């Protein structure tokens, strides 16, 4: 496993410095030498993460290196839109598609091209990213009629950044590989704001050469990237992380409501929690709105419940007991049954309020 983290210590190298560095490090690929800085250099393009590149030859790299690749982006929801936007703002050549076409329009205004099907996007691009809601939509967009696989061929790459289970990811990977193209699963940790800020954490697995090729693109959209091995490992890491997160939010919800019932000020609880060993940005950012019973959507509750369901399936596959996650999953199911699917997942607190304890008749 390898992990690269962009920190404040990462160096933005000038073209001259890159040229000097390249002369000492002949293994650095040409595409990393003296590349002109993109028109919108929001973040350092040349960081110490160049060390991640290996000398392995990539199927996909024969056509284009990461930054100059023609990039496709499928799925422009809460996460996909800002991710694609960051690529466009960094000067990349991006072609978009979304089931609901109107969501493409702001990106087209920023300079993106548009194609009317995943197949057409994949056929016209070197590397295609997909950010879909769930396993069903990820499969449909990759492998369905007019799906991306029908536009893939040798020399291209497909990077699925959706949160799905390992079995779905493997199916997609096999279908993509059957066309001669390369496949990388790369689900992300981090929500709407990190996506907007280019601060996502990529949990990748699959074709290592494709990982290396798209690393500069991942670095535009994210702050760190892990390479975890064979397809399925990235999905598994993401599901374990989100299993923990879903349980944490359910537990935090119980604490907020209990504090209020025993006469404490829940805002003070949020403050106390934020100063101690269990502090988390999730509590300090979501706590104040939860106290107001408002749940502006960053991570839809239906996706958190999907992740818990998939994590429980993963645990079942290896006979690992996960009683806390199972209990949390039930709460998210109650919240869904009360029409809270599209609210932020912090709306799970509503499932603990007395009036919601009995499902609607
Ligand atoms: N929001 C978050 O904080 C995070 C989300 N994730 C994961 O990222 C993925 C996307 O999340 P997010 O952007 O929040 O979700 P959204 O619900 O905002 O977007 C879902 C996307 O999937 C598309 N889609 C859904 N069903 C289909 C279908 N049958 N065929 C084609 N396209 C379909 C939607 O298209 P349309 O616009 O037409 O509905 C939309 O583009 C999920 O897997 C989620 O678990 C990961 C990390 C953080
Ligand atoms: O999947 C959600 C996240 O915040 O990460």
TrEMBL record:
Keywords: NAD, NADP, Oxidoreductase, Stress response. Residues 70-229 form the 6-phosphogluconate dehydrogenase NADP-binding domain. It comes from the Eukaryota. GO terms for cellular component: chloroplast. Residues 232-351 form the 3-hydroxyisobutyrate dehydrogenase-like NAD-binding domain. One of its GO terms (molecular function) is NADP binding. It holds the Pfam family NAD_binding_2. It catalyses: glycolate + NADP(+) = glyoxylate + NADPH + H(+); 4-hydroxybutanoate + NADP(+) = succinate semialdehyde + NADPH + H(+). Signal peptide: none annotated. Belongs to the HIBADH-related family. NP60 subfamily. Catalyzes the NADPH-dependent reduction of glyoxylate to glycolate as well as succinic semialdehyde (SSA) to gamma-hydroxybutyrate in vitro. May function in redox homeostasis and play a role in oxidative stress tolerance by detoxifying glyoxylate and SSA generated in glycolate metabolism and GABA metabolism, respectively. This is Glyoxylate/succinic semialdehyde reductase 2, chloroplastic. It comes from Quercus lobata. The lineage of its organism: Eukaryota, Viridiplantae, Streptophyta, Embryophyta, Tracheophyta. The gene is LOC115988359.
């Amino acid at each position: 496993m390898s992990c690269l983290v962009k920190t404040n210590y990462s160096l933005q190298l000038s073209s001259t410095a890159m040229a000097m560095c390249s002369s000492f490090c002949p293994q650095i690929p040409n595409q990393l030498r003296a590349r002109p800085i993109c028109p919108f250099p929001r973040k350092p393009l040349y960081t110490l993460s160049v060390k991640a590149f290996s000398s392995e030859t990539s199927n996909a790299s024969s056509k284009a290196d990461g930054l100059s690749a023609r990039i496709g982006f499928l799925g422009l929801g809460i996460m996909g839109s800002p991710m694609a936007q960051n690529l466009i703002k960094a000067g990349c050549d991006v072609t978009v598609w979304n089931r609901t076409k109107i969501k493409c329009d702001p990106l087209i205004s920023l300079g993106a091209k548009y194609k009317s099907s995943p197949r057409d996007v994949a056929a016209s691009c070197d590397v295609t990213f997909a950010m879909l809601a769930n396993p069903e939509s990820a499969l449909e967009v990759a492998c369905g009629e007019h799906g991306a696989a029908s536009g893939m061929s040798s020399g291209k790459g497909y990077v699925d950044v959706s949160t799905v289970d390992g079995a779905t990811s493997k199916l997609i990977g096999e279908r993509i590989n059957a066309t001669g193209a390369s496949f990388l699963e790369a689900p992300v940790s981090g929500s709407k704001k990190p996506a907007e800020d280019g601060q996502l954490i990529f949990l990748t697995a699959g074709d290592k050469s494709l990982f290396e090729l798209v690393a500069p693109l991942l670095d535009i959209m994210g702050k760190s990237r892990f390479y975890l091995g064979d397809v399925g490992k990235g999905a598994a890491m993401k599901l374990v992380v989100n299993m923990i997160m879903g349980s944490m939010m359910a537990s935090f919800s119980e604490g907020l409501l209990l504090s209020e019932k025993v006469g404490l000020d829940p805002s003070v609880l949020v403050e106390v929690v934020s100063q101690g060993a269990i502090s988390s940005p999730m509590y300090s950012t979501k706590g104040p709105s939860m106290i107001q019973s408002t749940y502006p959507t960053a991570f839809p509750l239906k996706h958190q419940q999907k992740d818990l369901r998939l994590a429980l399936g993963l645990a079942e596959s290896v006979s690992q007991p996960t009683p806390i996650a199972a209990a949390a999953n039930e709460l998210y199911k109650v919240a869904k049954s009360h029409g809270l699917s599209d609210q932020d997942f912090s709306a799970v607190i509503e499932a603990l309020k007395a009036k919601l304890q009995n499902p609607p008749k």
